[in-house]
Amino acid sequence: MRADARKNHDHLLAVAGAVITEQGVDASLRDIARKAGVGLATLLRHFPTREALLDALLRTRFDELTATAGELETSNSPEDALVAWLRDCVACTHEYRGVVALMTAALEDSESALHASCVTMRAAGTRLLARAQDAGAARTDLDGTDLFALVAALAWLGDQPALTPRADHLFEVVTSAILTSA
């Protein structure tokens, strides 16, 4: 990619990230283009669909969560690693309101632009869960799909204004239900 095209691409991603953080994943593409100071056609040249834009934006964050899982595996106890990763994963869902529905759909749709990064991220969480289970620190009746569903539930709690003040407490309740030593 040419340097000027890369600069435009990065600028569009930065603006899209800010708009989606503020308005959620259903933010208007026209609004993103306007705030970036370009026409909708320019935005669509770089990102032909909403999913392509979200994939470019979210892939980096999902890859970070996957890398974090790898780091936590080697630097933390199994239970601390799992809880830290869960906290990061839930924080990601709060950063981009509405992303959980996209992630859930992408996991089931191998044609989705988000499929590979979501599968990889879920696999990273599954490895952390299995490590905690092997160490006797987590319930053995849970799997990666269950763990992802709990992330989705915790994300939903954070999106409910009346429940937001209780989100940290409820996170602790959920993690204590996952961990056997809690």
Task: Summarize this structure briefly.
With 182 residues, the chain is mainly α.
- The general outline is elongated
- CA(first)-CA(last) distance: 51 Å
Proportion of residues in β-strands: under 5%
Estimate percent helicity.
over 70%
Low confidence ranges = none
What is the total tally of β strands? 0
**Biggest beta sheet attributes:** none
Number of helices: 9
> What is the helix/strand order?
HHHHHHHHH
> How does the helix and strand content classify structurally?
mainly alpha
Radius of gyration: 18 Å
Mean pLDDT: 89
Essential attributes:
single chain; 9 helices; 182 residues; mainly alpha
Describe this structure in words.
The chain has 182 residues and is mainly alpha-helical. It is built from nine helices and no strands. The chain has helices at 3-23, 29-36, 40-46, 50-75, 78-95, 99-108, 115-134, 144-158, 167-178. The longest helix is centred in the middle third of the chain and has 26 residues, at 50-75.
Topology (SSEs and partners):
Elements lengths: L2 H21 L5 H8 L3 H7 L3 H26 L2 H18 L3 H10 L6 H20 L9 H15 L8 H12 L4
